[in-house]
Every structure is written in C-alpha cells, then in structure tokens.
Automatic annotation (TrEMBL):
Residue ranges constituting the Deacetylase sirtuin-type domain according to the UniProt record: 1-228
Enzyme class: transferase
Protein name, as recorded: NAD-dependent protein deacylase
Binding site for Zn(2+): C113, C116, C132, C135
Residues binding substrate: Y52, R55
SUPFAM superfamilies assigned to the protein according to its UniProt record, in alphabetical order: DHS-like NAD/FAD-binding domain
Family: Belongs to the sirtuin family. Class III subfamily.
Keywords: Cytoplasm, Metal-binding, NAD, Transferase, Zinc
Places the protein is found: Cytoplasm
Gene Ontology CC entries for this record: cytoplasm
Length: 228
C-alpha cells in the first residue's frame, strides 16, 4: 500500500486557522492581489510583511487537532508507505508528529532570501531590514508560494502520485491548481481516491469514496478503517 494524502486549509480550520472562504476570516480583510502575489510584494512590501507576521502569530498560537494527530498515527503505523502533501503553510502536521511532509506552498515559519534563495527559520516578527544569513542582503520575504509562482517540490509530488495505490484529499476546495489536479492524475494511474471534506469539493466527482463532516471526526474514522 502506498498512500498519498493531500491536505488543504479545511484540516486546520478547527485549530483556528481560517480558510480562504471563511466569512470574516483573516483573508477576507485583504485583497489577495495585494498580499499574496509577487506584484503585491513589489508594490507594498511592508503590507505583505505585516500580513504574514499576523498569520505567523495566528499559527504559533494554534494547536494540532484530532485530524492532524490521526494522520501522524497513520504514518507511524505504516512506515514508508505514507506521503503527506499539504497546501497549508502552517506547521501543524509537523507538530502533530508527521515526518514525511511536503509543503507545496511553502512554510510560514521559514524566511526566504529573494536574492540568493537561502532559507532559514523565520523570526516571530519579520522586518524588511532583516538580512539574509548567507549573503547579507536585506532581501527577506516570506517563504510561501504566491499566486503566479510555481509550487515547491512538484517532481517529488508527481512521482508519489504516479506510484500511489491510494490517494486521499482532506479539507480541500478543489479550486487551486495544480493541487486540484492531483486526484484525477492518481485515479488515471489506478489509485483509489477518497475525499474527506466538510462538504463536496469542486472536483468531488473524481473520488470513488466520499465522506463528509468535520475533519476532526472524518479523518480519525478513516484512519481507523485503514488500520483495522
């Protein structure tokens, strides 16, 4: 058994980290073109830096929920058979105990030098004057993938999806590509595809098995069914 799990914002919602579509959530207070694009950063880097400082503080105060914990148990029970791909930039999977985590959209807790590409642990509050530890230039930016940029680790993700026997999407809207296309690719390669979500996604028709409800309930139940 080779399992690929794709997680989206819905798995962290019960930990207090809002999704893009949450009414009155953090994202609704901003224009995504201003805070989540390279052009927005070039136009107003202080606004973008402040936005991600707020998101980092929100993440630091959040705790993994039962869904994160269940996936960590699954990985521990099936060593070498589980690849966890997440669209989330929070670190809740890692704090829950998952080790084989691919963060395709980057990491809030990481800083990136826009000059030399060096990465290092982000301070709680980043500043535009922060200098890169490698090259010494003040070219610091959040280590997250903005709209219009290429997600990270796509070769490793493609290899995992191509060879998996089971593909499960958890808490994803099915609206953001290329992540939204992974389930269809896995199914074409013969994998059994499962959707675990609060409600049907935009691509629910792709999945042979569908379970709907809060992630803290449906994910532990699904993990238990696999391990039983």
């Amino acid at each position: 058994m080779r399992i690929v799990i794709l997680t989206g914002a819905g798995i962290s919602a019960e930990s207090g980290l809002g999704t893009f579509r949450d009414k009155d959530g953090l994202w609704t207070q901003y224009d995504l073109n201003e805070v989540a694009t390279p052009e927005g950063f070039a136009k107003n880097p202080q606004l973008v830096t402040d936005f991600y400082n707020a998101r980092r503080a929100n993440c630091a105060s959040a705790q993994p929920n039962a869904a994160h914990a269940a996936l960590a148990r699954l990985e521990a029970a099936l060593p070498g058979q589980v690849t966890l791909v997440t669209q989330n930039v929070d670190d809740l999977h890692q704090r829950a105990g998952s080790r084989n985590v691919i963060q395709m959209h980057g990491a809030l807790m990481s800083a990136l030098c826009a000059g030399c590409g060096h990465r290092w642990p982000a301070p709680p509050v980043m500043a535009l004057t922060d200098r890169c530890p490698a090259c010494g230039q003040p070219r610091t930016r959040p280590d997250v993938v903005w709209f219009g940029e290429i997600p990270y680790h796509m070769d490793a993700i493609a290899e995992a999806v191509e060879t998996c026997t089971h593909f499960t999407a958890i808490g994803t809207s099915g609206q953001v590509y290329p992540a939204a296309g992974l389930a269809a690719e896995a199914r074409r390669n013969g994998a059994h595809c499962t959707e675990l979500n609060l409600e049907p996604s935009e691509i629910s028709r792709v999945f042979q098995t569908r379970r709907y409800g809060p992630a803290s309930q449906v994910v532990p139940d699904w993990v238990a069914s696999l391990l039983d």
